[in-house]
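User: Batch of two.

Assistant: Item 1 of 2:
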Amino acid sequence: MRINITAKKMQINQSFTDYAQKRLDAKLDRFFPEDADCKITLTEQKNMITSELTVSYGGLIFRAEQKAPDKNAALDACIDRIIRQIRKNKTKVEKKLHSTIKESFEDAVEEQVEFEVVKHKKFVLRPMSEEEAILQMNMLGHSFFMFKNGATGSVNVVYKREDGNYAVLEPEE
């Protein structure tokens, strides 16, 4: 893999270049052949390092940008993000590149996400207000609650947001 490292507003030493070469070889060589191009751009802003990693091969471009207090950590986060992109788009990549990516691609992408429904539940929807639905949800200890809105007659879902507030999902009619 051909690697080009650019730094803006900072200096890059040989140890980082060696580290980048070692990490890219270890993590991305199984996906890309030796003639793939890799560009790393590092920028320092307010004591944070922004690492931008772009890998291009065969008409496909994978790009990731991450911030971290340390340039090694920022690069590692970018590499992990590129790997997730490759795994997520495995079939698209295979169609585009056919068999140009090394055969080990199949071995590296064993972590396919499969969803299994383990329970089906049926219940009666009673007409109620949003406040009553929130109360029911809290009493059951659930993070969401489906109900029939007494005012509109439509099926709604109330849920607790990460900020501690509540939100209602209602269909557009």
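Item 2 of 2:
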Amino acid sequence: MDYAPLIEKRRARLAELETQIADPALFADAARAGELMREHRRTQELLRDWETLLAEQQQAEDARALVSAEDEEMAELAAAELAELEPHIAELTERVQYSLLPRDATEDRDALIELRAGTGGDEAALFAGDLLGMYQRYAERRGWKFEILDAAPNDIGGFKEATVRVSGEEVFRFLKYESGVHRVQRVPATETQGRIHTSTATVAVLPEAEEVDVVIRPEDLRIETCRSGGAGGQHVNRTESAVQIFHLPTGIMVRCEQERSQLKNRETGMKILRARLFEMKQREAQQSYSAQRRALIGSGGREEKIRTYNFPQNRLTDHRIGYTAYNLDIVVTTGALEELIAHMQHAEMAERMEELQ
């Protein structure tokens, strides 16, 4: 595919952005200014990558011409240079391709992750806890902030459900592939016969919504307060800090009791509600996606089985792209999701590039 026409459009767009950014009036709208500044940075990075790619492609072409030279020493040097250039050219090409794709506005956003134990009783709750720890360690590897907004632990160290907020650079871009049913196959600690059990946990990753994304009318809400449950000493028993928010038109209910302050729990609950309503809005928009892309990134629904974690075989399999790796222990205990997510991104990018042709 010839990228030059698309690159020229981005050059023109960069000039427009620089004109807009030079206008002091822009910064009266902080959200708009931030959006344009991010687009300006991404466009600059794309054009730098493009210039580097063109230069390295020319270097590689020159090196190929020398590989068959009669001077053996020169041929060896050219072969060594080519071996060094080719992987970097492939990486640059992929980066340029990704940058040229129509951008999903939510990819820059922070994300909420909602985890729930599925079928399997206590073992499902333990697995949900394992996933929670895996995502926390992955966030740490990327330098993101990981904040538990609400959680319902069980008596054996697992979680019936949990909601976390992950904030940082392009969080939703990397975590969006995690929505769906995660299946685990292993021998539970409570199993005396050594039999392998199958349990599930569900994950929903929601882009964090802004107030302008969805309109929530006060008359559509019923907000109740109650006493928090679980550990917490006298404060739990004496104050009504927990908040339940009902969105009457959709039937969505959000409960928050993680904070000691009723006000903070209400703010957190509204943040979660806004994200869920935004997700509903986006899922309607996803109907316009190609069937192939919907199959790849999924509907984001909790009913869709996306991945199997087979501990006896140390195997991790993502069913959407047929990816299998035998390093499950490392992925779960250290949060090493980079390779899997890179494969998901590559597959999505390939499908989207086909749509552009």
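Residues 330 and 336 are 7 Å apart (CA to CA).
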